[in-house]
Design goal:
alpha/beta, five-stranded parallel beta sheet, two-stranded antiparallel ribbon, globular
């Protein structure tokens, strides 16, 4: 019966993508006086865009991004983005991240952010995960999958990495042309900690294979920053021993079975993951 149950770890990496693709009709203006509330002599204007890891999935609750068209979802809780904006001399002028966006769809948001990007000193984003069929790969490699399905999914995933890297590079070139600000491309954490052995829904062996696929994706994204002004920022070390299966995980997973398996925040950072994992790493690059 367990094998017949729909099992979706990463539903939300695709949530809203179909509705958002090529349907952006405009962006609501940021508060005109926001920058004026920062009283310090030098203010860093900041723009955030990208996928669900930039949109804060895993922290708070599901929320519509008020700056973007319907279907652009974010997490409502604290993240590295809100922590940066809370700094005295940082002013978040645009937060255009949406769960489910692919590299090409992120590129499609850049023209809509032109006035914000033109004046930005800092830009952050994550991209690339939605170009993989992560949900299918993790499902196939879980204890509800099969060896044959997992091996096939991993093979296809690895074959897709070069294409994803090329698409990410094109997106970063588009972004690079739109801003003179510092572009920080944030990597993805390893989802699993394997030192505690097999877990109910994933064996340590399969978790290691999925982590290696994630490492390959991060490497491709890092290479995609070449010949652009963007800088890749790894968070792998920051999340060390805080993946699923760790004693203190910073990756969200709803363990209520079966309903929790469909939780849209599954396999995204928790609030601690954003504030203790992503934020300190990004802060060092200010």
């Amino acid at each position: 019966m367990a094998r017949r149950r729909q099992f979706r770890f990463l539903t939300t990496l695709g949530i809203g993508a179909a509705a958002l693709a090529l349907t952006f009709t405009g962006i609501a203006p940021a508060t005109a006086t926001a920058a004026q509330t920062k009283t310090q002599s030098k203010v860093i204007d900041y723009v955030n865009l990208g996928d669900s890891y930039s949109a804060g999935f895993g922290s708070g609750t599901l929320a519509q991004n008020p700056m973007m068209p319907p279907g652009c979802l974010q997490g409502s809780g604290p993240t590295h983005v809100t922590a940066l904006d809370a700094r005295p001399r940082v002013n978040l002028t645009a937060n255009a991240a949406c769960a489910g966006l692919t590299t090409a769809q992120i590129a499609g948001t850049v023209p809509l952010l032109t006035p914000y990007l033109a004046g930005a000193e800092l830009v952050t984003l994550t991209l690339g995960a939605n170009d993989l069929d992560i949900r299918g790969i993790v499902t196939a490699c879980s204890t509800l999958g099969s060896d044959a399905a997992c091996e096939g999914a991993l093979r296809l995933g690895n074959l897709a990495i070069p294409t994803i890297g090329a698409s990410a590079h094109q997106t970063l070139r588009t972004l690079d042309a739109a801003t003179r600000g510092k572009i920080l491309v944030l990597g993805y954490p390893r989802l699993f900690t394997t030192s505690n052995g097999d877990q109910p829904l994933i064996t340590a062996t399969r978790a290691k294979q999925l982590n290696r696929l994630g490492d390959a994706l991060n490497l491709a994204i890092k290479k995609a920053t070449k010949r652009t002004s963007a800088k890749f920022v790894s968070v792998t070390g920051a999340f060390n021993n805080h993946g699923l299966g760790a004693n203190n995980p910073w990756i969200y997973f709803n363990q209520v079975v079966p309903a929790g398996l469909d939780d849209p925040f599954n396999l995204h950072p928790t609030t601690d993951g954003y504030l203790k994992g992503y934020y300190p790493v990004v802060k060092r690059h200010l």
